[in-house]
């Protein structure tokens, strides 16, 4: 279960911002899983929390009821710009 959630978040959060074809997203998909295996717990936890926040952030920044995995290319670009301009981005 944990592995599935980490891969889902990796694919849809990190994979959203990596300009790769969908079949080349293995590195993004396994990023959090690798962190939990190799990095200190506090580092893996922080990256996981940030991924969860970013996943649920689009409805608030774009004012549309869509999570990051349902955004089209134009919406992803607007979300990224809005996220970088927001006060929470430095976190």
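^ Assign residues to that structure.
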């Amino acid at each position: 279960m944990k592995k599935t959630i980490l891969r889902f978040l990796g694919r849809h959060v990190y994979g959203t911002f990596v300009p790769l074809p969908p079949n080349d997203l293995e590195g993004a998909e396994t990023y959090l899983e690798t962190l939990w295996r190799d990095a200190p717990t506090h580092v893996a936890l922080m990256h996981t929390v940030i991924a969860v926040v970013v996943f649920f952030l689009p409805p608030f920044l774009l004012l549309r009821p869509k999570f990051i995995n349902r955004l089209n290319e134009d919406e992803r670009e607007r979300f990224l710009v809005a996220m970088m301009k927001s006060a929470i981005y430095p976190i």
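Residues 6 and 40 are 16 Å apart (CA to CA).
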